[in-house]
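In this section we walk through a basic example: taking a raw amino acid sequence and producing a predicted 3D structure, encoded as discrete structure tokens. The instruction is simple. Fold the sequence below.
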Amino acid sequence: MSSRRITPVIALGAVALLALAGCSGGNSANNSESSQGSDSLVIDTAFSIETTDPGHTYDPTGNMIAKALYETLVDFEGSDVSTPVPGLASWEQNDEATEFTFTLDGDRVFSDGSPIEAKDVVFSLQRIQGMADAKPNFLLGGLTIEEVDDKTIRFTSETPLLQLPRSSRTRRSASSTPTSSWRTAGTTDGTDSAQGFLDGESAGSGPFVLDTLDLSSQVVLTRNDEYNGDEESAYSRVVVRNVSESATQLANLKGGDSMVAMDLNGDQVAGLGDDISVDSVPSGQTIFLLLNQGEAGGDLANVKIAEAIRYALDYDALLELAGAGAVQATGVIPPGFEGALDSGVEQGPRQGEGRAGGGRLHRSDPQAPVPERLPVGGVEFTPLAERIQAQLEDAGIAVDLAPAPFATELDAYVNRH
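The resulting token sequence is shown next.
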């Protein structure tokens, strides 16, 4: 993430807004929003956004926008993702970690000035539970969420959930304004039709409210005048623009057309001048190779083949594409989170039953899908996939790459295809 030194420091509200990444689409840098004045923050990123409805969003740009519009029960401070801190609420849990009680801060309000109450949090989260087609739906599976009193919410689970305060369950957008329009469209029984409303008008308690949404070009936010939290921004207006090419983001940043570039690669950052400040923080995102060992995976159901692929990869060579500061993921829990492994897989000898045995993998779909034009912190998927393809070829495993738009790949991933 790179920011031009137009102001001494980006305020806390803006920092929270910037903790994300993006994906494909056209270049909309040279539009009427390019000159915003000192009271506006202009951010260039490659869009991956399908909606601003917090009950449906499950993509990097959408999560960034949601963080600015809606607040959550639990949060993190800065780049420290190891220790959760109170967001809208403090919490306690029982010894078995099957019951968690959240107590709301007593004086927080929505963007319409009305107080945040337990019923609003419960409704927002039960709405997600009721929408089977909502991508975040699985995050709330197995949980009972209920109102104890006006300021208290209880989560219960049949199995221990020690990770719950740190998980996406409590960091889903947990507040929505109880306006008549929102309540009319929003339901908890699966018949919800509020997405259209929430794509045109935000209904949260965050430091910003939604002004305009164009999923192909830009999202404009304006200050929430009723906001009374501790992340108030120094900017009254934020424009998040869809700029899919990192070279264009770099040119806009150097030329003063933007204040923040989200997707510069390591080489571009290394070439920045002294008048550009660079923030490098650990990301909560992990780029991974998914081996579908279900019915759609064909030969990948053989654990020995999956093992051969895992140990065929040269992880140091993959890290070269990510640039300085990138680290190998040690497991499904990203480094920096509690529970992450200390060390990851090392490239090993291909021998015995651990070897795939050569030839092309047999699958119902013989191609390896790759999200195209999806930079994550400046790292592109396509060159990573091509390097993996070459490494597997050296191990006797032939893989065909099948680039497709991010939204297409995300739907297939969520639906386990």
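Looking at the output, two observations stand out. The CA atoms of residues 104 and 258 lie 37 Å apart. The first strand starts at residue 2 and ends at 4. In the next section we compare this with other chains.
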